[in-house]
Specification:
The chain is mostly helical. The protein contains six helices and two strands. The chain has a two-stranded antiparallel sheet. α2 runs antiparallel to α3. It is globular and about 75 Å long.
Length: 211
């Protein structure tokens, strides 16, 4: 297993560890250590998300396994984090919000599968990258907001309000990026269909001439 795939596997291993830290079974549950540890771990997992792809491209180590594991790890990480937060901080992370965010992820995964079967890919847009950053901020701030409403370092940081704003911003960006992705997919699939029809017509024309 090459380095990029090893990093991806590390991210997958971090997911159950993240869930354990948020559980009542964590040795320091009920203390600020729990929230800080979970936040740091999620940030590290998010960093590996970009690192494995970068290394795979730079080292020329893009593999079928990596292409399968990387998006799978991303979806599991996002799904696990938001589902856990519904129970961990329900005042900030509502059930319907998680349904929208996770539903968007599965929708895009389905469209990517169809696109792949049709022989084309749709590159991630700037909205998709913004959505990823918003998700990271949402998860980390929602975890911290479980214990702190505000941080006072001479300047008051409204942790809870940042979490709420980040969550709703994530929902908005997720929906907009889903529409943007769907439009790109539809244009590509429509173009592919026209190319197939044109090829079929040309093929029939050649058959008639030969006959």
């Amino acid at each position: 297993m090459n380095l990029p795939n090893s990093i991806t596997m590390t991210r997958i291993v971090m997911i159950p560890l993240f869930l354990w830290i948020l559980s009542p079974h964590f040795p320091w549950a009920g203390s600020g250590t729990q929230e800080i540890a979970a936040s740091i771990l999620f940030v590290l997992a998010s960093i590996t998300d970009g690192l494995d792809g970068y290394l795979a491209r730079k080292r020329g180590q893009i593999t079928t396994m990596g292409m399968l594991l990387d998006p799978l790890a991303d979806k599991i990480m996002v799904t696990a984090a938001f589902v856990a937060l519904v129970a961990y901080n329900p005042d900030v992370v509502k059930v319907w919000i998680v349904v929208v965010i996770i539903g968007r992820e599965f929708l895009i995964s389905g469209l990517r599968s169809i696109a792949s079967s049709e022989g084309f890919t749709i590159s991630a847009s700037e909205l998709g990258k913004l959505k990823t950053v918003a998700q990271i901020v949402s998860v980390v701030s929602a975890v911290l907001a479980h214990r702190w409403d505000n941080w006072d370092f001479g300047v008051v940081i409204p942790v809870r309000w940042i979490a709420i704003a980040a969550i709703y911003f994530t929902v908005v960006v997720s929906l907009i990026s889903a529409v943007d992705y769907f439009i790109g997919f539809w244009n590509q699939i429509d173009h592919a269909s026209k190319d197939r029809r044109k090829a079929a017509v040309l093929s029939r024309g050649k058959s008639v001439k030969i006959t």
